[in-house]
Amino acid sequence: MTPARAHDICALLTCPLYLPLERLVASPYGALFLPEARARSTSALAAKFATAFLEGCGLPSESPLTVVTDVGGGGALAKIMKVRAVMKEKRTEWSAVGELPVEIPLPLPYRFHSIFACPVSKEQSSAQNPPMLLPCGHVIARESLQRLARGTPTLKCPYCPVVSHMSACVRVHF
Ligand SMILES: [Zn+2]
């Protein structure tokens, strides 16, 4: 318990001595019970409960619409439109479905990968076939890793010339 929290807890434990509320508001603990302070703490608490509940359900704390408008309005949409215009001018098109031809940096809270698709097998990862990090830094699915190793304890990364030991590969949790 931090000293700040200890002070809060002591104040909350002691303040009922001044009940009823009319007397409590006039007591040294009165600031805790002013309508503005109560509204502030209630809304902060409600937001904390909502975040914890959504996290427990495995849902994002922000609505998908909020994320889309924040990311799009934060410059991503403008960059995509610019890239599209440049590519149209040069008469080229990006062919990779679901991928952008340029890196678009996102604000930290929006950097998440809820889905991992193995770049080798193109299959979506699962609990049985999780993403595995190779010592070189590349990530592929466990089944692809085993297929590349062909029963040997080592494998060559499909993206760079590094040969790694199977035991050095670690599971990645998203
Ligand atoms: Zn590699």
UniProtKB/TrEMBL annotation:
Keywords of this entry: Cytoplasm, Metal-binding, Zinc, Zinc-finger
Entries under InterPro entries matching the protein: Fyv10_fam (IPR045098), Rmd5_dRing (IPR037683), ZF_RING_GID (IPR044063), Znf-RING_euk (IPR027370), Znf_RING/FYVE/PHD (IPR013083)
Main location: cytoplasm
Localization per Swiss-Prot or TrEMBL: Cytoplasm
Keyword Ribonucleoprotein listed: no
PROSITE patterns assigned: ZF_RING_GID
Any one GO MF annotation of this record: zinc ion binding
Residue ranges constituting the RING-Gid-type domain according to the UniProt record: 118-160
One Gene Ontology cellular component: cytoplasm
A Gene Ontology biological process term: proteasome-mediated ubiquitin-dependent protein catabolic process
UniProt xrefs under Gene3D superfamilies: Zinc/RING finger domain, C3HC4 (zinc finger)
Span of zinc fingers (RING-Gid-type): 118-160
Family affiliation: Belongs to the RMD5/GID2 family.
Name the UniProt record assigns to this protein: GID complex catalytic subunit 2
